[in-house]
Amino acid sequence: MSNRTFTMIKPDAMRNGHAGAILDQIIKAGFRIVALKQTKLSLDKAGEFYAVHKERPFYGELTQFMSSGVIIAAILEKDNAVADFRTLIGATNPAQAEEGTIRKKFATSLGENAVHGSDSDENAKIEGDFFFSGLEQF
Ligand code: CMP
């Protein structure tokens, strides 16, 4: 099992001024930051990142939203990183997220849900490599 996961702080949380509080909660939960940057996805790049969802009805909305403003992308390290991070952020739909989770506290809606977290070790590696070169991951 890999000990890394990948996250993005999405444009809604950036616009609403939650980036600092979200990073604080992530670090206090025991994750080490392996790599981190603020950037902005073009519509094309957002489409490439979410290519797995291309056939979904929400793909257009998702890629428009994810390219609508700056984001923070980061690779995180901790034992059991993928599963523990998904617990920390809560359910995809903030209405169903547990009390105290990042999405419960900071998300706007199902589509604008404050943060992304990889769903598998394999995707964590693919997603981290999408944003960061090997030289940036340490
Ligand atoms: P994320 O974990 O980043 O990966 C895919 C994203 O698609 C997900 O978060 C949600 O923000 C978004 N998503 C999932 N279902 C819907 C939906 N029904 N409508 C809009 N966006 C959705």
TrEMBL record:
<dbReference type="GO" id="GO:0005737">
    <property type="term" value="C:cytoplasm"/>
</dbReference>
<keyword id="KW-0963">Cytoplasm</keyword>
<keyword id="KW-0418">Kinase</keyword>
<dbReference type="GO" id="GO:0046872">
    <property type="term" value="F:metal ion binding"/>
</dbReference>
<dbReference type="InterPro" id="IPR034907">
    <property type="entry name" value="NDK-like_dom"/>
</dbReference>
<feature type="binding site">
    <location>
        <position position="113"/>
    </location>
    <ligand>
        <name>ATP</name>
    </ligand>
</feature>
<feature type="binding site">
    <location>
        <position position="10"/>
    </location>
    <ligand>
        <name>ATP</name>
    </ligand>
</feature>
<keyword id="KW-0067">ATP-binding</keyword>
<feature type="domain" description="Nucleoside diphosphate kinase-like">
    <location>
        <begin position="2"/>
        <end position="136"/>
    </location>
</feature>
<keyword id="KW-0597">Phosphoprotein</keyword>
<feature type="binding site">
    <location>
        <position position="92"/>
    </location>
    <ligand>
        <name>ATP</name>
    </ligand>
</feature>
<feature type="active site" description="Pros-phosphohistidine intermediate">
    <location>
        <position position="116"/>
    </location>
</feature>
<dbReference type="GO" id="GO:0006228">
    <property type="term" value="P:UTP biosynthetic process"/>
</dbReference>
<feature type="binding site">
    <location>
        <position position="103"/>
    </location>
    <ligand>
        <name>ATP</name>
    </ligand>
</feature>
<protein>
    <recommendedName>
        <fullName>Nucleoside diphosphate kinase</fullName>
        <ecNumber>2.7.4.6</ecNumber>
    </recommendedName>
</protein>
<dbReference type="InterPro" id="IPR001564">
    <property type="entry name" value="Nucleoside_diP_kinase"/>
</dbReference>
<dbReference type="GO" id="GO:0004550">
    <property type="term" value="F:nucleoside diphosphate kinase activity"/>
</dbReference>
<feature type="binding site">
    <location>
        <position position="58"/>
    </location>
    <ligand>
        <name>ATP</name>
    </ligand>
</feature>
<dbReference type="InterPro" id="IPR036850">
    <property type="entry name" value="NDK-like_dom_sf"/>
</dbReference>
<dbReference type="Pfam" id="PF00334">
    <property type="entry name" value="NDK"/>
</dbReference>
<keyword id="KW-0808">Transferase</keyword>
<dbReference type="GO" id="GO:0006241">
    <property type="term" value="P:CTP biosynthetic process"/>
</dbReference>
<feature type="binding site">
    <location>
        <position position="86"/>
    </location>
    <ligand>
        <name>ATP</name>
    </ligand>
</feature>
<keyword id="KW-0547">Nucleotide-binding</keyword>
<keyword id="KW-0460">Magnesium</keyword>
<keyword id="KW-0479">Metal-binding</keyword>
<dbReference type="GO" id="GO:0005524">
    <property type="term" value="F:ATP binding"/>
</dbReference>
<keyword id="KW-0546">Nucleotide metabolism</keyword>
<dbReference type="GO" id="GO:0006183">
    <property type="term" value="P:GTP biosynthetic process"/>
</dbReference>
<comment type="similarity">
    <text>Belongs to the NDK family.</text>
</comment>
<comment type="subunit">
    <text>Homotetramer.</text>
</comment>
<comment type="function">
    <text>Major role in the synthesis of nucleoside triphosphates other than ATP. The ATP gamma phosphate is transferred to the NDP beta phosphate via a ping-pong mechanism, using a phosphorylated active-site intermediate.</text>
</comment>
